[in-house]
Amino acid sequence: MAGAYSLDALKSDVSKGLIDTVLVAFPDMQGRLIGKRFQAQFFLDGAIDETHGCDYLLANDIDMEPVPGYQAANWAKGYGDFVMKPDVSTLMKAAWLDGTAIILADLVDHHHHQPIPHSPRAILKGQLARLEKMGFTANFASELEFYLFDETFRGAYEKGYRNLTTAGYYIEDYHIFQTTKEEGVMRLVRNQLQASGIPVENSKGEWGPGQEEINVRYAEALTMADRHVVLKNAIKEIAHGQGKAVTFMSKWDYSLAGSSSHIHMSLARNGKPAFLDEKAELGMSTLMKHFVAGQLAHAQEITYFLAPYINSYKRFQVGTFAPTKAIWSRDNRTAGFRLCGEDTKGIRIECRIGGADLNPYLAFAALLAAGIDGIEKELALEPAYSGDAYNGKRLREVPKTLRDATESLRKSKMLKEAFGEDVIAHYVHTAEWEQFEYDRRVTDWELKRGFERT
Length: 454
What we know:
By secondary structure, this protein is α+β, with helices and mostly antiparallel strands. The protein is built from 14 helices and 16 strands. The chain has helices at 7-15, 40-47, 120-133, 153-158, 176-181, 183-195, 221-241, 286-297, 299-306, 360-376, 402-410, 413-419, 421-439, 444-450; strands at 21-27, 33-39, 51-54, 81-86, 92-93, 100-109, 137-149, 200-205, 211-216, 219-220, 245-247, 261-269, 272-273, 328-330, 337-340, 348-351. One of its GO terms (molecular function) is glutamine synthetase activity.
């Protein structure tokens, strides 16, 4: 996010009393911002160089519980510290919070100061470094969807998340009148993100009642991931400030549309589109064909990083605009991968598999690793699928459950080579813990179905 807010500007604002708090945060395995709030002058006096955090923060679950069985951090090792090193290029104002700036940090080892290999930001940086050696940069955009509720977060909790009132009560996809009713929150989201240095393109109503989408400009991959986690956190805080709640769950209600995070991506060489060949069919360069072929070949292996929870797989339903087949097609929203901008400099591939609950660093890194493998092996791209992929026969499936995706992740030689075997083992363990926690719980569905009738 270079250029969003300079260190000199921060110093000036601190001296004028305009900024009194600096939030130092890093993305955890769930893609949440985790960190500390510093008095601004103390941050400038020393914490700008580094601060510390407990290493269990990359070895816990979504409930913040320390999870047994990780090799990187555990009770036997005493859950020591790692170092949070602020990245000055990510410094920005948090316009939605009073007197606050925010800066993202990389995580490094407390002793030798090498990157923590399983930290999400380091994983993405590793794949971008591979691309750089090949002479390429990557540009990404993630479209975030979420539901807005006429409830507070505390109120939703006290209701047991049942009988919640969405901000709308009918399908509102692109519907201007309904989204006008939601402008109290969405206008703040757009304007305060823009004022903070995140360039917003637009917001719109999505398919479900009270479902929103926010889009920000295409950017270099690391910058886009940084923006993704900040804007997701900001949306929650802005909604909270307005007495509203939001959810980024992939599928919060069986009867309503799920929430996605479609990911658009392309490569560039020396600032010029590397995916475009004006003489080729559809404008797809040979490089692009290899890249997409790699993503298709490894689609099942990388799905965990696009769909990391039990709930993520509830979204993959026929006829819901969420894909069930990992194939590619021309401008076809039934396919897992969609060609966009054909024959133009904006040519790109859109991955439609990911849900709004994904961690952007891990998702981007996995997509890049698969694409790089396709380039290195010069994989041939299969023909584009035409028609309704939901009902297509003998097509490559998106894994239907977390169990299936975890098994594909466990067996992935490509990801072990790209991320490191220890990193993959770390995230396989994360997936297995998610499954274990679910398997031992009694759900409302089970009670309703079986309390009387079994």
